[in-house]
Write a structure and sequence with these properties.
globular, 7-stranded mixed beta sheet, about 35% strand, two-stranded antiparallel sheet, about 30% helix, Aminopeptidase, alpha+beta, about 160 residues, 6 helices
């Protein structure tokens, strides 16, 4: 019932749900580097904004998921997978051929999530979290250092 009632809306007025965006990115400064050049969408359930995703065009064939986050009260309810399906649909409608996403190599749960949703590992950006964030960031008790990149073909 929850998934059927979700409404996906593109945010056109720059009123981004920063609290949700910060669930998937560590700093406001990092978000500000991509949010204005992305198409940002939010998911609504019963008049409440519960999820967000940002889609950034790399080129005319490749779209990057810069941010995807679900409010903590709504996590583990298959909303993330539903959003990935919606993102694939949006990408298909806009004639993109490939979706890419990056996450920390310490984020085992995130990597498994993307793999379950059709993504495969294809590259690594070494020292990404050291080079792009002023303070060390830890996840699962480990310092985030490298970003792994995953991709999915849009059919």
């Amino acid at each position: 019932m929850l998934l059927e009632s979700l409404q996906i809306k593109e945010i056109l007025d720059n009123t981004y749900p920063i609290d949700l965006l910060l669930l998937a990115d560590e700093t406001l400064e990092a978000i500000e580097k991509y949010v204005d050049n992305s198409r940002v969408y939010s998911a609504w359930h019963e008049q409440k904004e519960i999820a967000v995703f940002c889609l950034y065009p790399i080129d005319d064939k490749t779209l990057e998921i810069k941010n995807i986050a679900v409010h903590t009260a709504y996590q583990n309810k298959h909303i993330g997978s539903y959003l990935i399906d919606q993102i694939k649909s949006i990408a298909r409608q806009q004639s993109y051929q490939t979706l890419i996403v990056g996450t920390s190599d310490t984020g085992e749960a995130q990597i498994r999530f993307y793999e379950r949703n059709g993504f495969v590992l294809y590259a690594k950006r070494e020292n990404f979290f050291i080079d792009h964030y002023p303070e060390p960031i830890f996840e699962n008790g480990k310092q985030m250092i490298d970003m792994v990149l995953l991709k999915c073909a849009i059919s």
